[in-house]
Amino acid sequence: xxxxxxxxxxxxxxxxxxxxxxxxxxxxxxxxxxxxxxxxxxxxxxxxxxxxxxxxxxxxxxxxxxxxxxxxxxxxxxxxxxxxxxxxxxxxxxxxxxxxxxxxxxxxxxxxxxxxxxxxxxxxxxxxxxxxxxxxxxxxxxxxxxxxxxxxxxxxxxxxxxxxxxxxxxxxxxxxxxxxxxxxxxxxxxxxxxxxxxxxxxxxxxxxxxxxxxxxxxxxxxxxxx
Length: 226
Description:
single chain, alpha/beta, five-stranded parallel sheet
């Protein structure tokens, strides 16, 4: 059943049957939802909540969610909780507004941080994971350090996080490349041509840093989340 222009979702009766069968036959109550944006449509969430309310057990779900959509539609947070969502992965990428706009993630960072704090204060049993990309065009080294130190200190209260250095994919090593991969030079990135021939990524530099420095920075702060 198509719930919006973005999603195809199982009919409510089929979803209910699957949840009940998995529970009765195998005792399954915990699920990882493989949907790139589980909260992309409130109608979809309400439909799933109706299914869950018919169950005689309480399922638990882990999902990918858009933090900016929760900021703009805060009413969906209670719906997600009622469904049984107890862990969310946010692809935050950056809290730098300029870098965010360059990759289509320009929502105000202060509102995102406030929402993370609100979720932890209101629903402390929801685990929050944040994904970041270091080295995005337009973000300074100091701004990256500031963000990661905020996360590390708990000022941005994520339960876990991972940081990946920006990768530029070679056009002849992938069936799919992004607009950025195809036009990285226009964003100030230079191909150093020092990568291994078998690597799918180029080694790059710009006016501020190199891909090696970015990878080292990302790995350092990711390890601190363990």
